[in-house]
Design a protein that fits this description.
This protein is mostly helical. The chain has 3 domains: 12-114, no CATH class; 119-193, no CATH class; 197-247, no CATH class. Helix content is 67%, strand content 0%. It has helices spanning 12-20, 36-53, 55-64, 68-78, 80-83, 87-97, 106-113, 125-134, 147-156, 158-163, 167-189, 195-229, 237-247. The longest helix is centred in the last third of the chain and has 35 residues, at 195-229.
Length: 248
C-alpha cells in the first residue's frame, strides 16, 4: 500500500501531468480537503519536480541522510500551513522555489507558496487583532481595513473583546480571533467575496442598534411619566402601568 509520502519515479513531463491531474474545479480547494489520491499526486509531483530541478543536490541528500526524502515528504504533508494551500498556490510556489540556486527546504517551499496578503488588502494577524481591539467600541462607524477583520471580530464577539480583562482572557480571545481570521483569509485567497456577509452583518447591527435606542427612549419616557405621577421605582411593572392609566 502506498502512503501519501511514498517515493515515485517519473519524467519531467509526467511530473507536470501529475500536478495537472487535479481537476480545475479542485484548484481552489485547499490541500487538506482533497482526496488522498490527489494529495499523494501533489506530494509526488512536488518532490519529483525538486529532483528534476536540483538533481545533484537532491541525490546528495538522499545518499548522505538515510530516510531523508521520506522524512521531508511527511513534514510537508503534515505541515498546517501547507495543508491550507490550494493546488494553484502549491504549483506557483514550487515554480518560484525552483528558480533559486539551491534545493529549497520544506520551510522555504511553503514560504514561496504563501500568498501576498498585502496585495489582497489583508493585514497580517497581529495588525488585524489590534484593529479589532482598537475599534471594538465603534464597530459600525469604523472603516475596516478589510471585511475579514470585521467578520473575525464579530465571530469572536465585540462585547467579549471590549470587556476582556487580564492577560489570560485577552490571550484566549486573541487565539480565537487568529483562528477565525485565518479561515476568512483562506476564503479570501480562494476567491470568496466577504463583502456580502459583512454588509448584511453591519446592516443587522445598525437595525439592532436603532431598536435598542428606541427601547431605551421608551423606557426613559415611561420613567419620566412615573416621576411626574409620583410612582415609586420599586413598584412592579403591572402596578405602575395600572397607576399610570388611572392618572390619564
Amino acid at each position: 500500500m502506498t502512503s501519501p509520502g511514498s517515493t515515485t519515479e517519473g519524467t519531467a513531463a509526467g511530473n507536470v501531468a501529475d500536478m495537472d491531474k487535479a481537476r480545475e474545479s479542485r484548484q481552489v480547494s485547499v490541500f487538506s480537503e482533497l482526496s488522498k489520491e490527489d494529495q499523494a499526486r501533489i506530494i509526488n509531483g512536488v518532490f519529483s519536480e525538486l529532483k528534476n530541478s536540483f538533481p545533484g543536490q537532491f541525490l546528495k541528500y538522499v545518499r548522505e541522510i538515510p530516510g531523508w526524502e521520506d522524512h521531508e515528504r511527511k513534514r510537508l504533508f503534515n505541515d498546517d500551513d501547507f495543508r491550507r494551500l490550494t493546488a494553484r498556490q502549491i504549483k506557483s510556489g514550487l515554480t518560484t522555489a525552483c528558480k533559486g540556486e539551491f534545493l529549497p527546504s520544506v520551510g522555504r517551499l511553503i514560504q514561496c507558496c504563501q500568498p501576498d496578503l498585502s496585495e489582497l488588502g489583508l493585514p497580517d494577524t497581529e495588525q488585524a487583532w489590534q484593529e479589532a481591539c482598537n475599534h471594538s467600541h465603534e464597530v459600525i462607524q469604523h472603516r475596516w481595513s478589510h471585511e475579514a477583520v470585521y467578520l473575525a471580530g464579530r465571530r469572536v464577539g465585540w462585547h467579549a473583546i471590549r470587556s476582556a480583562g487580564g492577560d489570560i482572557q485577552v490571550q484566549r480571545l486573541r487565539k480565537l480571533f487568529a483562528a477565525a481570521y485565518q479561515h476568512l483569509v483562506d476564503d479570501t485567497v480562494r476567491g470568496a467575496d466577504l463583502r456580502g456577509e459583512a454588509i448584511a452583518a453591519l446592516q443587522d447591527m445598525r437595525r439592532q442598534s436603532e431598536e435598542e435606542k428606541a427601547i431605551r427612549y421608551g423606557q426613559f419616557l415611561v420613567q419620566q411619566e412615573m416621576d411626574k405621577q409620583g410612582i415609586p421605582q420599586r413598584m412592579s411593572g403591572a402596578e405602575a402601568l395600572k397607576r399610570m392609566k388611572a392618572g390619564l
